[in-house]
Amino acid sequence: MAAAARFFIRGANSKLSITGIGNGSQSSFGGTLVKLSPSSNSRTKTQRRHAHFTFQPDPERTQYGPTQKMNLFQSVTSALDNTLASDPTAVIFGEDVAFGGVFRCTVGLRDKYGKDRVFNTPLCEQGIVGFGIGAAVAGATAIAEIQFADYIYPAFDQIVNEAAKYRYRSGNLFDCGSLTIRAPWGCVGHGSLYHSQSPEAFFAHCPGIKVVIPRSPVQAKGLLLSCIADQNPCIFFEPKILYRAAVEQVPVEPYTIPLSQADIVQEGSDVTLVAWGTQIHVMREVANMAQEKLGVSCEVIDLQTILPWDVETVCKSVVKTGRLLISHEAPITGGFAAEISSSVQEECFLNLEAPISRVCGYDTPFPHIFEPFYIPDKWKCFDAIKKMINY
Amino acid sequence: MAAVKSMNKLYGVCVHAARRTASRLFQHRAFRVGAVQRQQPFDSSLEKPQFPGASAEFVDHLEFIQPNVISGIPVYRVMDRQGNIIDPSQDPQLSKEQVLNFYQKMTLLNTMDRILYESQRQGRISFYMTNYGEEGTHIGSAAALDPEDIVFGQYREAGVLMYRGFPLDMFMAQCYANVDDLGKGRQMPVHYGSKDLNFVTISSPLATQIPQAAGAAYALKRENMNRAVICYFGEGAASEGDAHAGFNFSATLECPIIFFCRNNGYAISTPTNEQYRGDGIAARGPGYGMLSIRVDGNDVFAVYNATKEARRRAVAENQPFLIEAMTYRIGHHSTSDDSSAYRSVDEVNYWDKQDHPISRLRHYMTARNWWSEDDEKSWRKQSRKTVMEAFERAEKRLKPNIELMFTDVYQEMTPNLNKQRDAMWRHMKQYKEHYPFELFDKEPISQ
To answer: Which UniProt keywords apply (chain A) (predicted)?
Structure first.
C-alpha cells in the first residue's frame, strides 16, 4: 500500500543515503548519472517552504521529576519504554516497528525488551487491529501501530464494530480496554492525499473508543501513558510534522495527563480559539497577531481528547468571551468542528456575539502542490477573527 | 493414488518441513521468533535461486501449477455413515460415560433448537439460528479442548457452549433478553458469551473473530500456561479479508491456535461453488505455512481426534492448525430465511436421514449396547421437559433495567452519557404511557 510513497517519506525523514552501492566496476543503477547544475534561473523558486507554524514549547514541568530534551518521537519512545518496563504483559506491534519504526518511535525497544514484545506484523491493518483486540481481550496490554493514519481505514470495521462495542455487547464480560492504537497524523508539508490525513472525525462518531491528539512532546508522553492505562480502547494520533520539529524538556519518569480534559493553553477575554495537535501552534501565533494588530485578547484551548470531549471547558470559555473559532486541517464538512459548533450553540446560544467560525481544510482530498493554499493557516484564522470581532 | 501423490508433491515441502520442525521442537516450547531465516549468505556462484522471498529450485520449462479441485484434500473419518468404526486404531476409545455425554449434549442442543425456533415463529423471541446437522462439529471439538482454552465463535457453535456446561436458563435468558442475560439484553438472540466458560461473546460481523483469536493466542503463548485458542467460522466467512489476516498473523507470529472451519455447504443462499473455486478452505492452509486437515464433520470421533491432536501440537509447538470440518446445514440460515427458495427438499432430506452426526453416534452406541430404545424414549422426554421448563421460566422474567442501556459503553460513565440518560428519564416521565415500562426490571443497579 503506497510502498513507494512510504519509501520516499522514509528517505526524507531518516536520512538514509544510498552510498557504496555504485562502487562496482560500472554504475549498476541502470542509467548514467546526470550532473545537475544548481538552479540559477531566478524564475524557479526553491521548493521547500517554511513550515506554516512555529512550535511553541510549554514551560518546563518540574513536578514529574528530572527531565531530558526530547522531540516528539523520542517522547513517544520514552512512554513506550516506561510501559514495557512496568507492565510485563505489554507488547508493541505493527509494520516495521522492530527496527525502530519509519518515524523512529520504537528505536531500541526490541533490543531492550525482546523479540516477543516488540515485533513486526504482516502488512495488514485489519489484522494489526484485530490481533490487538484479541491480545487485549486475553489480558495483554496491546499497543498497535498503524504506519500512517491515512491507512487506518481497513481496520475501521475492527475499530468501530468490534473494539468500540466489545464491553457493551458482552454485558461487561469481555473488553479490549488495554488496546491502544497509535498512528502518525496530519499535514507534513509534502504528504499529499495519503500521508497527511486527519481522520479523527470518522472515529468521533463511534461511542466506545477514545480519540486523543497531543500538541507537544510533554503532552504526547502524558496523554499516551493515559491512553495505555485507560481501560477503554484508545486511538492516539501523533502529529507527524512535530516528530522532529517539536522539542521540549520531557520528564523521564512516567506521568499521566488526564483524558477528556481540555487544556487552556493561554487565557483571554474576547475570543475562544479551539484546536488540537499542530494547529494549536498556529492558533498561538494567531492569538499574538490578534493582540498586536486588533487589540483582541484570545483564549486558546487545546481540546486534546476528541472523544469524549470536554464540553464544559469550551462552553465555560465561550460564556466568557462570546466568540468561538474552531480550526482543523481535516475537511470542513462533517469535520469535528461541526460537532463542537453544534453543541456550543445549544449550550451558549444567548452568550454568542457572532456566529461560530470554523477555519478548516477545504472539501477536497489533501492536495500535494497546493498544500500552502489548502491548510487553515494563521492568515485565514486571523481573518476569521477580524470578521467575528466586526460582526 | 495418483491424486494423493500429486497432492503430496504440491504440499510435500510443507509436510516434510513440518515433520522436521515438529520433532526438533517437541522437546521445548521456546519461541521460534526469528528462527526462520536464511541459513546461508547470498552466493551467486550457486545455481540455486538466492531470492530472500522463497526457498526453491530453478525450473526451465513453463508450467502453471494446476489447482487440484477434482480430487481435493481427502476427508478424514473414523466411522462410516452407519456408525461403524472403519479402522479400530482410530477409535478414541472413550468411556461409555463420555460417549453418552456426547450424545446427550448433541440431542439436547437439537431439542433446544426445535423449541426456540418454534418460539420465534410464535413471536415469543425475535430471532433464532439453529444448529441442525452440525452438532458433531461442536461436541467433537469442544470435548477435545481444555476448559481453560479460549473459544472465539461465529454464531453457529452453541453446542460448544452447551458442552462446557452453559445452563439452559442462560441460553434462554440471552434469547429472551431478560434480566438474567449475562449480556444485559443488548444483543440479538444466539449472541451468547460466558467469561467463566472462556467463550468470547458472539458478534454479528463475520470473520472479525479470526484475527482477534490469533492475538489472544499470542497473549496466551506469552503467559505460558498451556492454554490454546480455538476459532470457529463458516466457509463463507473464510472469504472475508479478516480470515486471510488471521491466518497469516497466526503463522508468522507462531500462535497456539486451532482454526476450525465449519464447511456446511451454504452461506445463507450462496453455495460453495459461488464462494470459492479452490479446494475448499483446507487447501488454503499450506499457502500460509499452516498444517491443515479436512475431516468428516458429521463424524464426532473424527472431529474429536483431529482437534485433540491439533491442540496438543499447537501448544507444544506454538503454531496454528487449520481443520476444515465438512458438514451440511440442515436448517435454514436463520428464522429470517426459507431455504426452500434455493435448495431442494430432497437434498436436505438426504443429510437429515442418511448422514447425521446424531444418528451415526447412536448406531455406535447401540452396537455396544450402551443405548436402548427405552433409553432413547425416556431421554427425549426428559430433555424436552427440561428445555420446556427453562423456556417457560425465561419467558416470565422481566427485561433488564433500562439504566443498562447507558452503561458499559466505556468502563466509566461519561458526563455526556449522564446528560443523555437524564434527558431520557425526563422525557419518559412525561410520555410514559407510550413506552413498555411494565416489561422492565425496576430494581436499582449497583454501578
So the answer is: Mitochondrion, Oxidoreductase, Transit peptide
